[in-house]
Amino acid sequence: MRIIFLGAPGSGKGTQSAILSKKLGIPTISTGDIIRNVLKSGGKQAEVLKSYTENGKLVPDNLVIEILKSRISDSDCSNGYILDGFPRTVAQAEALENMGVKIDIVIDIDVDDNLICKRMLSRLVCSKCGSVFNSATEMRPKIENICDNCGSKLIQRKDDTENTIRTRLKVYKEQTLPLRDYYSSKKILKKIDGSKPIAQSSAEVLNLVKN
Ligand code: AMP
Question: How far apart (Å, rounded) are the C-alpha atoms in residues 67 and 153?
């Protein structure tokens, strides 16, 4: 299966993708995670990418399409995958189609802006393994500011600041929301209410995927 999670930053795409990945035994591809790994390793490409991500802007289509294309050609993707954070523009969705990728279902996670801001401001990520926690949800770490998985320090994402969040939501509305119509016209768009508890949303997601 090839599944896309659509939704604003902070809507829970990453959390729901990780849960579904385990259930279906297929990888999640997060272009945001791939980009953050490039940033960690430094170099010229990192400098270019950083100028977009740290300001809440989208990385240009041609760069992110190349990143995605290379990742889906890996052998672990042969039985399907879940896309978290790609496509984010109609041009990216068209590129996916031109690559011959057939998407089975697009799950649109709907959450209102106030809840999104609250979630993003309390989101913490592991400085070493990238695991995500949140002091305002069920994803609270067992020990404050320490990663449950590897024991490293939790930090705030550089783009989870009030100003950048505002820009990211604006960018989402202008550039990503048109994808709702794009996939709706293909009759593969399904919507869930992302303000519910994580387990309830993941049960709904599984239900949609199995039907
Ligand atoms: P995310 O972790 O999905 O919120 O992504 C973090 C940042 O990476 C975004 O704010 C963008 O700057 C960049 N990014 C991730 N995925 C894409 C994409 N599909 N298109 C353009 N930029 C992206």
Answer: 28
